[in-house]
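Question (not urgent): is this output format expected?
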Amino acid sequence: MFITLVNLSYHGVYIEEIPSGVRTIAGVPTSITAFIGWANRGPTDTAERIYYWSDFERYFGGLDGRSLLGYAVAGFFANGGTDAYIIRLAGPDASPAKATVDGKIDFEAKNAGAWGNHYRITTKIRPDDTAKFGLQVLYFDTADDPDETHGVVVESFKDLSVDPGNARYVIRVINEQSIILQTSLKGTPGSPPADSATPVKLTGGSDGTVLQPDTPAFEKLLTDPSGTIPLLEKVDLFNILCVPGETNPGVISKLQGYCRKKRAFMIVDCPENARFESLRAGPNPALTDINSVNAALYFPWLKVPDPLQKNQPRNVPPCGFMAGIYARTDASRGVWKAPAGVDAGVSGILSITETLTDMENGTLNQKATNCIRKFPVYGTVVWGARTLRGNNTVASEWKYIPVRRLALFIEESVFRGTRWVVFEPNDEPLWAQIRLNVGAFMQSLFRQGAFMGNTPKEAFFVKCDKDTTTQNDISLGIVNILVGFAPLKPAEFVVIKIQQAAGKIQS
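Got this back:
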């Protein structure tokens, strides 16, 4: 407790406000998912945050039969996901569509891709003020449609000016407000562009090489220091990582290591052609190293109705669907509940690529492979909740997904909730405040049923005192906080014992 002394200068009553020392620790989100994959449009220099499927359609073009990314994101939102980052990979030979209006203003699609070829631009000078003009962006279903009346106006800007000092300076307005175009002036035009006799077509946009998972070009962008990792580094917080269709053990191992560093969890896809026989010996050893505590593998792939092929079945990897189920389970039951069981139904699918028996499921479960099963009445459900470190022979303390994810949640929440401690005097008053605030956070989780135990003392402990922070630590500017909890582990095996009551023996 800190006391502020006031200057007593006159006779009377003085009131002092004394800080309580309570600094509430808020639990961080648990299911913000980062997706990485090829898309036909969208920014390539940032991780774009989206909240709805319509956002993905608007920024990244929706489903594209050449890529698994859109199907994974659709499965995420269909199964309860609400918050995601999208990192678009594009080939080095992809290029943006471009156009020049009246020889005065250069326009370019916001990002590379053939999508830009579907847009055209019209300009019109204001009759009452010839220094200002309006601009419209039109979309055409067919890039080479010769009928100019088929276009739909998708963006419209009024009262634009070529004067840099004007509040409606065309460069500033277009670059800041348009989600389709970016622009620059050719030289220093003294007058606005003339009225368009016909819409000016953007041309030259190209998708370039379509990057597919498990190929060198795709994986180079995944693991290269100048590739996707710097984009993820700029994201304040993500909890789950999905790279739909990527199954290369070496690449996955590196991504698992990165997830462990970021206190995130990776959902790993099995190969599309994986079958029980190919997995019964267990996942590739490269997937089960020490960093695999922050990852889980799911089998088999899913069959979904493909809207691009008149709803014919298409095989898609399970990672996006599983991430949605994680989010749904977190919201309804908490991160300490296993994202599996009869409540973990998989929505938006037709079937699965392989049907497993109970014995086959049991074999794979003990090898740390989570199965997706189809049952009568319940439909298709997730029937496994182990991390890739969950092989029975390893006996890892992080064998189960909910236990590991709960630990990551506590770590991230306490990390962010104790930043105020930095530069505070490192002594008992500070330690007492830390115990108070971290203890209150753990108590709130206990009341929600996150821990095993009937009392807080049985469920968790928080230590921060002279035993955890020695004099040498104090001299080095270190304060140590020890937090322990008794996790709830999922009931994988329910044993029902039945005994027949013997009738009274007549004597």
